[in-house]
Structures are given as C-alpha cells and as structure tokens.
Amino acid sequence: MGFPEASLSRLDREGLDHYRALRPLAVAAFVRARKTDRSFGDPPLIDLARHLEALEPVLEFGVLHPMIDHLRWAARFHRARSDSLIQVSTDIDDLADFFLASMEPRRGSIVADALRAARAVALSPTVAHGPPVAPARWLDTDAFRAALLSGSRRVALELMNRHLDADGDVTDFGAHVIQPALYDIGQLWEGNKLSIADEHVATAIARCVMIQGALRAHGTLEAGPRIVLACAEQNRHEIGLQMVADAFRIAGWKVLFLGADVPAGEAVHCAVDWRADVLGVSVAFAHQMKSVGEITERLRSLGADRRIPVVVGGIAAARYPWLARAKGADAVAHHWRDSMSAATRLVGGHSS
Ligand code: B12
User: Fold this and answer.
1) Helix extents (H) in 166-302
2) Which among 65, 185, 237 is the best mutation to test ligand 1's pocket, defined by most ligand atoms within 8 Å of the CB?
3) What is the spatial distance between Cα 86 and Cα 206, in angstroms, rounded to a whole number?
4) Per-residue pLDDT for 40 more than 50?
5) Is the CB of 335 under 6 A from ligand 1?
6) 314: Cβ below 6 Å to ligand 1?
7) pLDDT tens digits for 74-121?
8) Residue closest by Cα to atom 72 of ligand 1
C-alpha cells in the first residue's frame, strides 16, 4: 500500500516537539479540572493519554487513519462495557480546547481540527471497523482457542504435538492455529467477554506451546545470516516476534531475540555489536513507529558501509505499512512467511 493522501495540515518539527511536551500537561489539566484524585492507572485517564499518543502520527503526516482506528477501538471497547460514548466525545472537545489555548494559534488549530475530524468519522454509528486480520484458520483453531479459554495447557499441547507427529510444520501451526486463536482472545477481551486474567492465562499457555514446538522442530545448523529481533519501545506484545524468531531459527538463521519494549538505542547497539545482517522490529500501535524512526536515523548516522537494513512487522505494520516506510523501514512484513522472504531479500539472497 502506498502513502495515503494527507487530508490534514501537518505540524512542523517545532510544533510536534511542543505537542509532545504538552501531552502530560493536558492529562494533568484534566485531573485538576475534574477535581479528582484519579491516578494514571485509572482507565479514563489512560484513555486520554492514549488519544494523545494515537494523534501524534496524524499530526506528523496529516493522515487521519491511525486516530480514526484508535477512536473506533475505544468506542467498541466502551460500548461493550456499557460506558457512554458521550464521555469520549467530551474528552475530545476538552483536549481540543486545551491545545487551542496552549499552542500558538495556527498549530493549536491543527491539533484541534485533527481531534474533531477523527471523532466525526470514528464515532459515527454507521461506520464498521474490523479487527486485525490473522492468517487463514485451520480446523484445529477453534479447539485450540477453547483450550486457551478453559486454561487447558494439556489439550493445547496435545493439539500441537498431534500436528508435529504428523510431520506438520511448527511455524504453520503458529500462523494458522495459535495466531488466529490469540486474535480471537483479543476480540473477546475487547468485547468484555474475557477478563485481563483470562487473557493472561491464554497468553501463558500459547507461549508454553510455542516453546515446546520450537524445541521439537528440527532447525538446520544455525549458519545462515544474523537477525536481531526487538519490539519497538513501549510495545509489550512479544509473542508475534517470538514466532518470527522461531521461524528464522528453524530456517537456519542466527537469531538474537530481545523481546518486549526495547529502547531504540539498545536495539541499534545490539544489532551493531552482534554484527546483524538485518534488524527486525515489531510494532503494535501506530505511535510506536516513532521508535522505528529513531532506529533508522541512528543506523543511517553510522554511515552507508555499516548500515543494517530494517524490517518492520506486527499489527501496526500490517495496518500502516506506509508509516513504517515513512520512518525509514527497508521492508514491511506481516506474517512470518513474508518476514522470511523480506529479510532474505535484504541480505541479498533468494526469498523462500
Ligand atoms: C496477548 C496480548 C497482550 C499481552 C502481550 C503479552 C506478551 N508477552 O506478548 C499484554 C497483556 C501485555 C497486552 C497489553 C496490551 N494490549 Co494487547 N493483545 C494481546 C493479544 C490478545 C494477542 C497478541 C498476540 O500475541 N498475537 C499473536 C501474534 C502471533 O500475532 P502478531 O503479534 O500479530 O504477530 C504476527 C505478525 O504481526 C508478525 N509480526 C509480529 N512482530 C513482527 C516483527 C517482525 C520484524 C516481523 C517481520 C513480523 C512480525 O508475525 C507474527 C506471526 O505471524 C492481542 C490480540 C491481537 N489481535 O493480536 C491484543 C491487542 C494487540 N492488544 C490490544 C491492546 C489495546 C492492549 C493494551 C493497550 C491494553 C491495556 N491493558 O492497556 C496493552 C498495551 C501494551 C503495550 N504497551 O504494548 C489491542 C490493540 C488494539 C488496537 N488499537 O489495534 C489488541 C488487538 C486486542 C483488542 N482486540 O483490543 N496485550
């Protein structure tokens, strides 16, 4: 997908810096205005902080999608909990007024207009918005999801072992069974049909199954190219990255898996120090692409001869590939299979 047409005015660099500096002040102003002692752990205040995070790429690129997606998600989340959407709508107005009053007028209007434009589209009851799309499901996906929901690690392991006993591919099981089942879990949590604890149990079982699968898989001797895999700063979703790491190991790559929430400087430092051929970054939310920008900028500053190519994946990469490219990514991939072909192309080999 190419870069979508910018429909809004953008903030210049100075304006963006000012916006970032004002974000915590905006949330604090709400606490004062509502005369409440609520802390940042309180859901409505987390909401406000998230609205402002989601708005950042919109202000940088003038493309409204990330904020519309975020508000639609927030609307679905609150509807499922019978919360009134009037609060979300009022919050947007209050935030718009805050930035109009706190910034130089032209920049303040850019922020306020973006907030209100996204709200007008996102909170319209006629607009439907689908969840992230997982790879095709297999027959076992529902049984696997049921095992996750009932907390049955035994059944979940049995399903995978049966697949491997029949010479099945562990990465295919990950993509067509574990990934869609976890996407379902996300939908159920969002729809208020599952508690956070239920989701944590499901996640723990899925990870255990993946570890067992990776241990059973016969990888070729790790003599291939070297890839460092890291979640972007603030991204705590590391299971997808783990799946990608397993697939690369099985294909014979040398893998350094850094896991969740890796600061940009650390990711670059590890990639350089470990002499990586490729750096893979996982991004779950549009605003986390900022970290991809920091990574590619740092890598560029090392000079052309030491430049390590960057492949970006994760649900935000699937939704906003243009944003990853705008932040300097050399390739964007969604599932493990396209990760492998993209990374192989980047190291100058043939894609599988
Ligand atoms: C488990 C989970 C969590 C766990 C993660 C635990 C862990 N250790 O990983 C925890 C509890 C931490 C969590 C937290 C949150 N989560 Co969550 N989470 C999920 C859930 C249910 C499953 C994620 C997962 O493992 N998916 C399975 C993997 C295999 O899929 P994947 O990540 O897409 O990875 C594949 C590809 O994307 C790609 N890929 C991934 N990374 C990379 C990297 C490279 C380099 C490449 C090439 C490819 C690649 O390959 C993978 C294999 O095919 C999802 C639902 C969903 N749709 O994914 C929600 C979901 C992502 N979470 C969501 C939310 C809202 C949150 C929170 C904000 C909620 C909160 N409590 O505040 C926080 C944010 C935390 C943060 N700062 O990151 C939303 C996001 C909504 C949106 N706007 O899009 C989702 C979609 C749930 C929902 N339907 O509402 N979450």
Assistant:
1) 170-173, 179-190, 196-216, 239-250, 264-273, 289-300
2) 237
3) 37
4) no
5) yes
6) yes
7) 888 888 888 778 878 888 999 999 999 999 999 999 999 999 999 998
8) 46
Could you tell me the distance, in angstroms and rounded to a whole number, from the CA of residue 282 to the centre of ligand 1?
10
Q: Residue 70 burial (CB < 10 Å; 0-12/13-18/19+)?
A: buried
- Report whether residue 243 contacts ligand 1, using a CB cutoff of 6 Å: yes
pLDDT at 130 over 70: no
Comparing 135 with 328, the larger pLDDT belongs to: 328
Indicate the pTM of the whole model: 0.94
Give burial (CB, 10 Å; 0-12/13-18/19+) of 8. middle
Two tokens at 29? 């102003």
Give the integer Cα–Cα distance in Å for 146 and 274: 41
Predicted local confidence at residue 352, as pLDDT: 40
Between CA 69 and CA 75 the distance in angstroms is 10
Residue nearest to ligand 1 atom 2, measured at CA: 237
Q: How many CB atoms lie within 10 A of CB 211?
A: 12
